[in-house]
Structures are given as C-alpha cells and as structure tokens.
From TrEMBL:
The chain crosses the membrane at residues 12-37, 44-62, 68-92, 99-116, 122-147, 154-173, 193-213, 220-237, 243-268, 314-334, 380-402. InterPro entries: Quino_amine_DH_bsu. It comes from the Eukaryota. It comes from Elysia crispata. This is Uncharacterized protein. Keywords: Membrane, Transmembrane, Transmembrane helix. The lineage of its organism: Eukaryota, Metazoa, Spiralia, Lophotrochozoa, Mollusca.
Length: 427
C-alpha cells in the first residue's frame, strides 16, 4: 500500500507507506501549523493531528480491539452523539446557523449514511449492503461530483470538478488497479498502476517543479519526492522489518524522522516558531505518546499497556477537557469545550468502530464507520471544495481526495496483498 500527496507553496504534504505490519502516514501544512501523523504497527494504530490558532485537534489510537478517536473544533456550536451496541451503530450530528445535519445507522451488513448542508447545497448519500457499496456526492456552484460503485472484485470511481478542470477515473479488477488523473492550468498529472506485487506511481507537476516516483516490489518499497523553491524533500525506504522515513522542510523548519524495526516504532517530529513537539514510541504491547504545543498550552499524554488505554489532554484558556479510557473490548471517550460548547462522545464495542467530526460555518465534515469487513470514511469541506472519500471492503481499499482552486489531488487503491493493515489504519 502506497500513498502520496503533495501541494506546493504553503506546503501541504501527505505521505503514506505500508510494509509488513507497519502502516505510516504523515501530513504537514505550513504557516498556521496543521500537522497529521499516523502510524500502525502490529495491532497498534496511532493518529495525531493538530491545527493552530482556532484549535482543531484530532487524536486517535487503536490497540488490539480498541479504537479511539477525538476531534475538537473551536468557535461555533458543534454537537455530536454516537452510540454503538452489538451490531447497531447510531449517529446523530447537528450544527447551527447554516444547518449541517448528519444521520448514520449501521445494522448487520447494511450501512446507511445521509448528510445535508444548507446554502450552497452539499448532499451525500451512501449505502453499503453485502458486496455492493454505492456512494453519491454532489456539490453546487463550482460543481464537484463523485460517484463510486463497488461490487465483488470490481471497484469503479468517477470524479469531476468544474472550472480549472480536475478529472479522475479509477478502476480496480482482480489484481490490477489502474488510475488516471489530470489537472488543467499548471499541469498536474498522475498515473498509477498496480499488478501482482508491483506498484508503480509517477506524478509530475509543472512550474515550481514537484516530482514523485514510487516503486514497490516484493519486500522493497522505495519512494522519492522532491519540491523546488522552499525545499520539501521526502525519502522513504522499506526492506524486511526496517521502515525508514526522512522528511525535511526549509524556512520555518519542520523535521520528521521515523524508524521502525522489529517491535519498536520510533517517531520524532519538531516544528519551529510556536514550538509543536511530538514524540511517540511503541514497543511490544506498550504505546507511549507525548505532545506539547507552546503559547496557548496544548498538552497531550497517552499511554497504552496490554488491554488498557488511557488518554488525557488539556488545553488552556477556554477550557477544553478530554478524557478517554479503554479496557478489554469497550472504549469510552468524553470531550468538552467551554464557551461556544463543543461536545464529543465516542464509543467502540465488539466489531463496531464509530467516528464522527463536524465543524461549522464553512462546513468541514468527517464521518467514519467500520463494521465487519466494511470501512467507510467521508470528509467534505465547503467553499473551496476539499473532498475526501475512503472505502475498504473485503480486500479492496479505496481512497479519493480532491481539492479545488490550487488543485490538490490524492487517490489510492490498495491491492489485495495488503488488506489488514490498511483497514486497521483507516478504521
């Protein structure tokens, strides 16, 4: 499984690498500091995201049968209630003013999602039953359209964006995955082909020179990425049980180093200026995370040992409190934000993992649901149109991302050779 996304100028960068039992994801945005890191090793899946200024914070940790997610948005009134019991998952979300409404229900092999946003009209409908997965999405004004259908071993995706012309077509059948993407104006081109144990990716961007080449064969995964001007460089190599990643960004100094060997996963990340620091270490059944942000004081500490997971996070000023505890097969999360009232509740039990995140005004929406062999993720952002859709079913893992205007495009389909670790990372 290989995933790579890159945006120029203000430096939005996403990299994902999967090898043996190790799944790694790293995303970085410049200036106001949006940072995402995900790592999966053996039965441990870890995700950490941090956004500066208005304080959007996401943290997720999965260990054994425990899935944990926390999301927080500042300012206006976001309410979430989610409940999972046996084979029934129920979700209700409500946002004020511009009216964002979400209802999701999962029972047995049927997953149903309905989302509605007012004003500029964003509509999503998704239905999954047995081996058939159907998704339809529609956005008004600048016209973003997505249609996806999966049945048996055939996965089909079609995406279209107006104005600056972003087009995506993807088809997966048996062991062959084909992707073609084209963007107008400044010329971003992506071609990917996967067959048997060979995955090939080639990407080219014009003007300021962004180049990507990736090749995977047997137990060797190699990635090389280069961006001009402000200097973004990525190199990744995986062989046998050793995964090595090195990333460097110039100017404000963002540095990432990750190394995985046998049962030990080590991550170190550092960002200059306002000082965002992340340290994570995983060894055997113990996962340790420490995160610190300066100024407004965001502190995160997480420890997982055996079947018990504990998380405590507290930011300053307007009083945001998070408490999470997991034991055996039951995971409980409670989060509360003062003033404009952001409340989060998440629960995971048995084979059902439920995730929901919602932000007001410009409408940022994320919904994730995992049940039996179906993993579904949908994200939507209004106005400038950022859209993400991910679906995993049986041995097919599918991810689609689209951003308007400056055109950031990401697409990935995983082959049947690496289903488990991908499904675990996206759940």
């Amino acid at each position: 499984m290989f995933l790579f996304g890159l945006s120029h100028n203000n430096i939005v960068f996403l990299f994902g690498l999967s090898h043996n039992n190790v799944m790694f994801l790293f995303g970085l945005s410049h200036n106001n500091i949006v940072f995402l890191f995900g790592l999966s090793h053996n039965n441990v899946v870890f995700l950490f995201g941090l956004s500066h200024n208005n304080i959007v914070f996401l943290f997720g940790l999965s260990h054994n049968n425990v899935m944990f997610l926390f999301g927080l948005s500042h300012n206006n009134v976001v309410f979430l209630f989610g409940l999972s019991h046996n084979n029934v998952v129920f979700l209700f979300g409500l946002s004020h003013n511009n009216v964002v409404f979400l209802f999701g229900l999962s029972h047995n092999n049927v997953v149903f999602l309905f989302g509605l946003s007012h004003n500029n009209v964003v509509f999503l409908f998704g239905l999954s039953h047995n081996n058939v997965v159907f998704l339809f999405g529609l956005s008004h004004n600048n016209v973003v359209f997505l249609f996806g259908l999966s049945e048996n071993n055939v996965m089909f995706l079609f995406g279209l964006s107006h104005n600056n012309a972003v087009f995506l077509f993807g088809l997966s059948h048996n062991n062959v995955v084909f992707l073609f993407g084209l963007s107008h104006n400044n010329a971003v081109f992506l071609f990917g082909l996967s067959h048997n144990n060979v995955v090939f990716l080639f990407g080219l961007s014009h003007n300021n020179v962004v180049f990507l080449f990736g090749l995977s064969h047997n137990n060797v995964v190699f990635l090389f990425g280069l961006s001009h001007n402000n200097v973004v460089f990525l190199f990744g190599l995986s062989q046998n049980n050793v995964v090595f990643l090195f990333g460097l960004s110039h100017n404000n100094v963002v540095f990432l180093f990750g190394l995985s060997h046998n049962n030990v996963v080590f991550l170190f990340g550092l960002s200059h200026n306002n000082v965002v620091f992340l340290f994570g270490l995983s060894h055997n059944n113990v996962v340790f995370l420490f995160g610190l942000s300066h100024n407004n004081v965001v502190f995160l500490f997480g420890l997982s040992e055996n079947n018990v997971m504990f998380l405590f996070g507290l930011p300053h000023n307007n009083a945001v409190f998070l408490f999470g505890l997991s034991h055996n097969n039951v995971m409980f999360l409670f989060g509360l934000s003062h003033n404009n009232a952001v409340f989060l509740f998440g629960l995971s039990h048995n084979n059902v993992v439920f995730l929901f995140g919602l932000s007001h005004n410009n409408v940022v929406f994320l919904f994730g649901l995992s049940h039996n062999n179906v993993v579904f993720l949908f994200g939507l952002s209004h106005n400038n149109v950022v859209f993400l859709f991910g679906l995993s079913h049986n041995n097919v893992v599918f991810l689609f991302g689209l951003s308007h205007n400056n055109v950031v495009f990401l697409f990935d389909i995983g082959t049947p050779s690496v289903p488990d670790q991908i499904q675990g990372a996206q759940s």
